[in-house]
Fold Calcium-transporting ATPase.
Amino acid sequence: MSTTSSSNGLLPTSMSGRHDDVEAGGSARTQDEHHEQLEHDPNDPFDLDNTKNASAQSLRRWRQAALVLNASRRFRYTLDLNKEEHYENRRRMIRAHAQVIRAALLFKLAGEQQISAVGSSPSTPSASTGNFDIDLEKLVSMTRNQNISTLQQYGGVKGVAEKLKTNMEQGIQEDEKEVTDRKSAFGSNTYPKKKGKSFYMFLWEAWQDLTLIILIIAAVTSLALGIKTEGLKEGWLDGGSIAFAVLLVIIVTAVSDYRQSLQFQNLNDEKRNIQLEVMRGGRTVKISIYDVVVGDVIPLRIGDQVPADGVLISGHSLAIDESSMTGESKIVHKDQKSPFLMSGCKVADGVGNMLVTGVGINTEWGLLMASISEDTGEETPLQVRLNGLATFIGIVGLTVALVVLVALLVRYFTGTTQDSSGATQFVKGTTSISDIVDDCVKIFTIAVTIVVVAVPEGLPLAVTLTLAYSMRKMMADKALVRRLSACETMGSATTICSDKTGTLTLNQMTVVETYAGGSKMDVADNPSGLHPKLVSLISEGVAQNTTGNVYHPKDGGEVEISGSPTEKAILSWAYKLGMKFDTIRSESAIIHAFPFNSEKKRGGVAVLRGDSEVFIHWKGAAEIVLACCTRYMDSNGTLQPIDSQKEFFRLAIDAMAKNSLRCVAIACRTQELNKVPKEQEDLDKWSLPEDELTLLAIVGIKDPCRPGVREAVRICTSAGVKVRMVTGDNLQTAKAIALECGILASDTEAVEPTIIEGKVFRELSEKEREQVAKRITVMGRSSPNDKLLLVQALRKNGDVVAVTGDGTNDAPALHEADIGLSMGISGTEVAKESSDIIILDDNFASVVKVVRWGRSVYANIQKFIQFQLTVNVAALIINVVAAMSSGDVPLKAVQLLWVNLIMDTLGALALATEPPTDHLMHRTPVGRREPLITNIMWRNLLVQSLYQVAVLLVLNFAGLNILGLSKDSNHAHAVEVKNTMIFNAFVMCQIFNEFNARKPDEMNVFSGVTKNPLFVAIVGVTFVLQILIVTFLGEFAHTVALSWQLWLASVVIGLVSWPLAVVGKLIPVPRTPMSVYFKKPFRRYKASRSA
């Protein structure tokens, strides 16, 4: 049976995952109820549980279905559905007309420079190329046209490097003047950004609200009629007050929106600022992509982004993905025949060094970036659902406004409406036309103002507000959010698949155990017991088969070792053994390389010594390299068969792995020169021999667990989030670290399939993988594809999966997961671009903080919904009942606009910026399809709104007697006092209820209030402004000054909401969500239709 459901918050769709939200009043449900909620309604445009890879059609569908009063504001932060098409058009244009576009941009920048006469454009080089022997325009033209003949005329890469005064081995000199000279001659690696919207644009967008436009028209009409009938002194008040209130709403809205946009702008700047390594003065230094200059030598590795245009100096198996610039998704291999590299492309495979020849707007990538604006838009599942909720409430509000309008008009024209003095407002044949029009405009204004209050235009935008706040705070917690939706989806995460190295461990590696010469060395890095021939081969294997570097300062300072943590550990160990890095690299040459591959778990190089001898060096996972070895070199430098010692080495690897050590083996073999391909083309296709290897050494590398990771894992477990470790390391090493981190509770748990090898998992059938995935806690010797298969299996089981990754091959798993988390330090650019959140310190504890923030986003939105709906329900009921019964409303247009300001903009600011609390981690994950308005919220909302309605209606109908105003000789004044009291008490109720909204399920609503100074400030400012409005803006706001007794009574009425909230929280709520009861009539109706 199919059921109708809606994710607008009143009619939920389904639960994603198996957990309920405690704050949301969730608990164990019967199978039928759970099944009932799991159903998805394809007819509901707002039923989008995941927007990460949603189709443009489904995104367009919900926008068309939403009730929107201000489209430019409501859809400001949603995805630009034409973005891809616009990008593609710009890319094609730039590829075809790069020279013309560059010339136009340079002309524009030069003009701006002259006009401002302040500073100079960072991207505009001077006409002169200074001390360099090559012309900028010729250099740019050669690279853009990929002109090989021009490159050869300059003497190839070597000739260009000489003209640019660059040492191809050591890079440019590492001094500020050198960099400045190059920037002034060839430009800097920046481009002029498209200017963001000014504050005036936000004012204009806030003004686009349909109801506000109608109110302004009504205000102008009222103003004209008022001045005509009552004169300027008295006549401007009604129309003028409404116009001023509308302008105040527009200004406050614009200021809030503008602040948000600045926060997003800062985060975008952070995302674009890529850090990369360059060679300067022989050292590998890390710099910002903006600091790259022409002449720089940049090492390229798998997953890197090409930071500027350039020419390949040297490379092995280098393959570039040029799809971002050419639009063709094919991998292009780069060598001396095809040496040109384009900025913005990605390294798909291999390694290499490039010489930078073009930066900034002298590259096609720079021109493209300068011509498109940064798109911060992206809808989130919560944003879509809130649009559904806003649409539902808006329809109710419009209906109520229409009822009020009809009721007031009917009462007015039937002569039953009286003014404040008791006189009948409309008498047929007596009342003038101008009075009738004036009275009708006032009635119409009240109806429109009810729409302003009733349609929660700010509700979907509250998500953006809380996300902007959360993203800014998460930066301090070392998490950079790339996709907004990930921030809130993290609150629903039921499992985290984490890497081991650098995430659960410190990534500070040192070699602590060594097996070489057939036995264990007493001291891991003491060469005294080893034969010089063995030390020489180890040194050559380490020095040549690495992407790291060893730099000896000229002043004799401490040696600097760079590279990945594993590379640095092995280089440091070999250096202590006596490795002469520079000497070895100069005496032998790499003729072919097989870069380290996470599938094969090893990497190798072919090294030519002199003219006749070729050695092939391999380095990688110990048990895999050991399986390829047939001999080992003993401590005397003699080659011995390995068969008798193989078991000894296996046991040694197991022993090290059980001590949490990463085991790496170093091996080599000779290769006859005549079996090595002579032609470069054949050499590029040559597979390095990996059989009959000679084992040289096995090293055990210690990488300690991060402090606090055990506690972070415990917090996750208690919060209903299962932590799984997925690592490429040996299963024994993985098990030891998992026990140390608390991922595995004890040794008894470490049985298959709780702990499993990637190879075993990938060989299972799809159905078996889904069954086994639920039980997996540790996966060792896993490839990136195994990680992808695990993520897919877990998602099919209903889990909301967060996965960490740092390598290029992790990109598919990061993309497939609900939340992809890449590593900021060790992660490649490809991994970062495929991820949703970048963990800047690579620390698992930061991942846990992201979970807290994700839950905080959802909780804050629920707080705001509860607060806003309480105001909506109370204001609508009071005005409807009063209008139907007396033909007048106690809450006037200006007053309702002030309430709307408290509720919408100020309320969102106060509640959407609540910091996360530990309480959030004492509950299970938020179901992604959990109803937005939960049973606890319904209870709180109904208790408060019924109290407010009861008190204010009593004041409306019996206020004159209760307040002792019935004996007042001036009846009109008495009515004004009563209406002011109703308005004041209503606002006091909202101010005090704002505290209740902070803690929907806790008794103490004041806990942590001092940690949110913005909340305290907004409540304080609201209170002060209310005093000023009532006391000093009488004629303007339709109020009169109240006595201190009435002020005290107003405060007491508001204050009662606190003890009332405590009592209300003692009322039990049913387990079944209220939304299920709402849904039943729809289900029955649909069943009867299909029967």
